[in-house]
Amino acid sequence: MAAQNAPSREWWKEAVVYQIYPASFLDSNGDGLGDLRGIISKLDYIKSVGADTIWLSPIFKSPQKDMGYDVADYRDIHEPYGTLQDAEALITACHARGLRVLFDLVVNHTSDQHAWFRESRSARTSPKRDWYLWRDPKTGPDGARRPPNNWASIFGGSAWTWDEPTGQYYLSLFLPSQPDLNWACADMRAAAHADMAFWLDRGVDGFRIDSMNLMSKHPDLPDAPVTDPGREFQSGDLYFASGPRMHEYIREMRREVFDKYSSGGRRVMTVGELGFTKDEGSVAEYVGRARGELDMVFTGDVVDMDFGAGHKYERDDFRVAKLRDITARWQAAIPACDGWNAVYMDNHDSGRSLSRYASDDPRYRAAAAKMLATYLGSVSGTLFLLQGQEIGMANVPASWGMEEYVDVEAKNYYDAVRKVRGEGADMGDVLREMRLKARDNGRLPMQWSAEENAGFSRGGRPWMRVNDDFREWNVEKQEVDPDSVLAYWREVLELRKREFDVFTYGRFKMLDVEGTSEDVFAYTMTSPDGRKKALILLNFSDTEQPFSGRGFEGWRRLLGSNVAVEVGKDGVRLGAYEGVIFCNWLLN
Length: 588
Ligand code: ISL
What we know:
The chain contains 16 helices and 22 strands. By secondary structure, the chain is of the alpha/beta class. Helix 9 packs across helix 10. It is globular and about 75 Å long. It binds 6-O-alpha-D-glucopyranosyl-D-fructose. 6-O-alpha-D-glucopyranosyl-D-fructose binds near residues 69, 211 and 312.
């Protein structure tokens, strides 16, 4: 009976995607910045880890005010990264190795340097004026000019930027230099579609779609409800996230672009970044198979587990119960709508999960990184890793001051708080949150070796400081250590591929066993035919934890280094930060 619910096998479901942050991956020409030639030289390494797809954070021409998420020309490459020919060579080199390539599609907004925006801002009568969202100012009670509504920018301040020459504001949900495109304009949509086709014509296998659900705004752009009376501007997500025409735009994109490149054995993969929209029903509208929209989305909650109620950089500590709830929710809700999960814990927009949810204390770091790998490798969905996760890279050290942070989100927040508190005020609490969650953490240069600059750049001064721990934590060292985090990830990914029916396509069931510590996450994964079962035990604490094991006696260890090779009648003892998998199919 269960077999008829088995999901169909697809390459994009079984893919293991390795996210490359181009600036920080490998600098091949000594200018301190990663580049496409550097990436090409490491494709064999990526493949050896067990990944079969790469996702490149943006490589397009850009003034880099937001590290390439501000695109000035979708059909050209940021010069220090290389040329169009290098990008083509990269795609060819991937395909020659059986690797697929996802590009980052940033089309909710462009850079203010994009030709479309330059033209749009040139005059109110410009034919491209309505490719962006221009509005007249309001007048405050004091007669002063005010933005058209009270929305806050995601990076701080008002979401509206004043343009003196034409006397109007434009909407900029991120930086003032990232004007939002007006998707209600059909010509603008057609131009974006043509840029997507440009890359599909060059062999790209799919897209991670940035800020995907922000493209349709409420046509009236109304004031947001005041949820935080202490702030001048309010989150307008009620009116800019998952707006009224959002699904129409995605279906059109599919019809006009992706589906045209999905035939004859080719199938374009899409993963949408879904911010603000959290409920199962709304998520299902994007990924339910019958909807004909996206293959999968990043729901974001697994990277937001320690965000404060009012802001990312307010404090709210991680608890295992949150991970349990989030995992159980999506592992059930997505198959229920015949959709598909994206499984991940790290990306370039936050701190490393190792440092935030487990431990980068040298005593536990390797065990903790392996435990998280056990989690990620065992649940159902398409797995995404961030570069460096495979060697247990960690956040910046606590000793680094704010001057080492380079990302605009962190700096804007820090400066805004300091302004309120006054010069010289204690900022220790903010720095603590930065150390956990700042985007800089996920963007540190890749640690290849114990050489100068961690082997990331020869001769050059890395655009970001290299983590102090690189002599101990690097690829070269782990390559020759059979006990390394890297060796473990290889094992995890190999197992996931081999037992795809249990893990990639399996059904998740939470175990709530009495007497088990709150810090232990225990669940089973079952193959769609119901025959193969795996028991996964994850200890998120620095102390030993018992698990009673009732009902699992005799199950054999499949992965992990637990002292028990099988579940005994007294259960299992888990070491600090230990992750282990037992299974029912090696019973004799
Ligand atoms: O980074 C965030 C929280 O720290 C998010 O709010 C993030 O800005 C949001 O998820 C959108 O992210 C994407 O678009 C941004 C870009 O800065 C991010 O790097 C990108 O992932 C604007 O393009």
